[in-house]
Amino acid sequence: MNPANYLYVSALLFTIGAIGVVVRRNAIVVFMCVELMLNACNLAFVTFARINGNLDGQVVAFFTMVVAACEVVVGLAIIVTIYRSRRSASVDDASLLKR
Amino acid sequence: MTSNSLVYLIALPLFGAAVLLLSGRRSDRWGHIFGTLMSAGSFAVGVSLFLKMLGNPTGERALTQKLFSWISVGSFQVDAGLLADQLSICFVLLITGVGTLIHVYSIAYMSHDLDRRRFFAYLNFFIAAMLLLVLGDSYLNLYVGWEGVGLASYLLIGFWNQKPTYATAAKKAFVANRVGDMGLSLAIMIAFATLGTVSFQGVKEHASQASTGSLTAIGIMLLVAATGKSAQFPLQAWLGDAMAGPTPVSALIHAATMVTAGVYLITRSNFIFDLAPIAQLAVAIIGAITLLFGAIIGMAKDDIKKALAASTMSQIGYMVLGAGLGPAGYAFAIMHLLTHGFFKAGMFLGAGSVMHGMNDEVNMRRYGGLRKFMPITFATFGLGYLAIIGVPPFAGFYSKDKIIEVAFNAGGFKGIALGTAALLGAMITAFYMTRVVILTFAGSKRWDDKAHPHESPFLMWAPMVLLALGSVASGFFFTRGNSLRNWLAPVVEATPSHEGELLSPAVVSILALVLVAIGVGYAIIKYLLNEVPQVAPADVTEFTKAARKDLLQDNFNEAVFMRPGQSLTRGLQVADTKLIDGAVHGIARFAIGSGNLLRKTQTGFVRSYAMWILAGAIALVATIWVVTL
């Protein structure tokens, strides 16, 4: 199977994730879209590793996964805290820095 | 010869001023007596020094005292030193003698003033500064005294500064004096630049090595200084307003001593002017212009003090004219200065006595017939009057006629022009002084019933009597055997030149007396035989109107210097606010504006930031794609 197809899937996933981040208001969904973009990147890394025949891309993919796991922990904690204090998970409501 | 007592001349009045100013109201009760004693002490020191000088042979009379090394920079050495030579000691005796008399007079004149102690402090300070002026042995030391008398003059003109016009008069005098002071400082700088020294002795020795051009420059700058301090044309406008000060101040500072400092400066600098004929001629011309200028103004003034001030200006014009005539005239300029010190101070004190008896009224048209009420004032004023118009054998006859004679004999057209001006001035002087005397003391009474004219107390008329004696006898005393001239000869190197003279002394005296008689006669017809209106008539010629306004000198200064100066400052102010402040504010406004623009991008919405990041990433990728294509 042509490895380029994996790249197309990766680009599609990234685009869906990016659009999700831009258009959705719910913080959880935005967060999931960010994860989607990260995973799209991971897919691209793995694919390039396969194309080039070395392990560099796979190493970076693992690295990304570890960082993403940490980020999920911190990010979810922040979202839950905001929800508790403001009774809303909308990212547009959390614009306090503007004022 | 050195003498250690010179410093006491200055130290005594300076100590008096310091004590009176620092002790405050505590010395109110005895301050005036203390101040007078300090001045009298200075006079006593002056007399003893004079006697000491008399005892020395002619060539060794000058006394010097080095106080301390003042400025020592490389080759530039200035010592704070004092020099009392034959010229200085004349001034010392005049300043301390007349000064002490005026201190005594002021005790009574200022007795009702709450600030009498402060007045005496300033008077003492003036005496000290004026003595420093005439005793300094270098131009720089002279300059210190020069500024000191300017300050004293300012403080005393504005002594009653609760009246805004008086405060303005003080400021006017100060500003006019500053213009002159600038001339003096420039002269000192030029002297140092070309001769490398500023002491009188050094400049005298090196003057012949300098170029005529630089000597002329020094001379002209010294003349500018003299015009400022001595109220000569074109810086004379302040003297009339200076009459705002108490009358003793007018008598001491603005008649007898300070205003003659310019004459002292020119006479002292004779070694410069004798080598710079152009500057010397300029001095003579300025003197001739001023003596006519002042005399014309004097004819039109109804304020007794302003009439006397105009007369002072005119008489100093005579002295400057004399000093501008070179070695032949210096001694007579100083002689006129000394006799003028007596008679003009006496007349000012007389005017003060009249004002004292007339509720401080100064308008002569509101006087009239006062001789019956103030016989002593009338007698002393009358003697001063006879002296100033030059009736023999009173003092002015000797000094003024000599200046006229020297002017005529200056040679050529210059001599005729200057001599004619001086003669004309004598006639006008006779007219306006007769006018003052008639309006004040003769005729019918023109004051209202509120005034109760009375003779002044003893402390006031005693100094007037002594000054009147001086106006009677001083001229005769100075002229007898050419005593003053021979006395001053070592300083000013007078060369008696009687060859090729245009008019002999007798002819000049007769001419002058005839013209004086005409002036007196006209004044008698106009003011004694005709009724004097209480209000100055308005239907007079434009010339008279101009003379009443000081020959439009103020208008001229205002139009030529004040208005353009004001426009300049206003323009600079506009440039400051619009250009400089504009630039600074503009930069600030630009920063604020661009900040406001950038702030709009900061919405606070996470999604819009994400949008920007996305757009940036796409732009980055697109750029890389385009570049690698």
Describe the structure.
The complex is a heterodimer of chains A (99) and B (629). Chain A is mainly α and 99 residues long. Chain A contains three helices and no strands. Chain A has helices at 4-23, 27-52, 56-86. In chain A, helix 1 packs antiparallel against helix 2 (27-52) and helix 2 packs antiparallel against helix 3. Chain A starts with a helix and ends in a 13-residue tail after the last helix. Chain A has a single domain, classed as Helix Hairpins (Orthogonal Bundle), CATH 1.10.287.3510. Chain B is mainly α and 629 residues long. In chain B, 73% of the residues lie in helices and 3% in strands. Chain B has 24 helices and two strands. Chain B has helices at 6-23, 31-55, 86-109, 116-135, 139-157, 164-195, 200-206, 212-229, 238-241, 247-256, 261-268, 270-273, 277-300, 304-323, 327-357, 375-389, 395-408, 412-441, 458-479, 483-492, 505-528, 542-548, 553-601, 606-628; strands spanning 63-73, 76-84. A two-stranded antiparallel sheet of chain B has the order 1-2. In chain B, strand 1 and strand 2 form a beta hairpin. Chain B is globular and about 120 Å long. The model of chain B has no long low-confidence stretch (mean pLDDT 88). At the A-B interface, helix 1 of A face helix 24 of B.
